[in-house]
Amino acid sequence: MLFYCQLLLNFQGSYIDFYVRSFSYKDKGYGTALDDIGSGYSTIASLLSLDTDYMKIDMDLIKNIDKNIENQQKVRMYIQIAKENHIISLAEGVETKEELDILMEMGIELVQGYYFAKPSEIPPKTLLNQ
């Protein structure tokens, strides 16, 4: 293993401290991602305290985002913070063209979800332009 990541949690829920000890993983071309931004303990504070490369926005914020103004505001803010900090934003769980369209309007950089392909042992060779 090229890096070690440890999460220390205050069980009263008042804060989370992340400590990442790297053993030159970035020098070897590896990157890191913070998963489930917008839910649980994956917060903007933790995103900014880590030297992460990717921010994966939780699918609960993405589901029906085309109809949910509150989630649109949150995701727009997350994307802006990612851009300002040179972090690549990724939306998890994109399932409809409408969700994709609004995320693209917002400036999302990467997307994943059933709209493109369901999980498979063999990756699809191409994605159709839908």
Secondary structure blueprint with pairings:
Blueprint (H helix, E strand, L loop, with lengths): L2 E7 L6 E7 L10 E5 L6 H6 L4 E4 L1 H4 L6 H16 L3 E4 L5 H10 L3 E2 L19
Parallel strand pairs: 3-4, 4-5, 5-6
Antiparallel strand pairs: 1-2
Could you explain the architecture of this structure?
The protein is an alpha/beta fold. It has four helices and six strands. The protein has a four-stranded parallel beta sheet. Strands 1-2 form a two-stranded antiparallel sheet. The chain starts with a strand and ends in a 19-residue tail after the last strand. The model is unreliable at 1-23 (pLDDT under 50).
In short:
By secondary structure, the chain is of the alpha/beta class.
Keywords:
two-stranded antiparallel sheet, four-stranded parallel sheet, 130 residues, disordered N terminus, alpha/beta
Order of helices and strands: EEEHEHHEHE
Oligomer: single chain
> What is the number of helical segments per DSSP (H or I, 4+ residues)?
4
First-residue to last-residue Cα separation: 39 Å
* Backbone CA Rg: 16 Å
Largest sheet: 4 strands, parallel
Low-confidence stretches: 1-23
Classification by helices and strands: alpha/beta
Strand order of the largest sheet: 3-4-5-6
The general outline is: globular
Mean pLDDT: 78
- Give the proportion of residues in helices: 25-40%
Number of strands: 6
User: What percent of residues are in strands?
Assistant: 15-25%
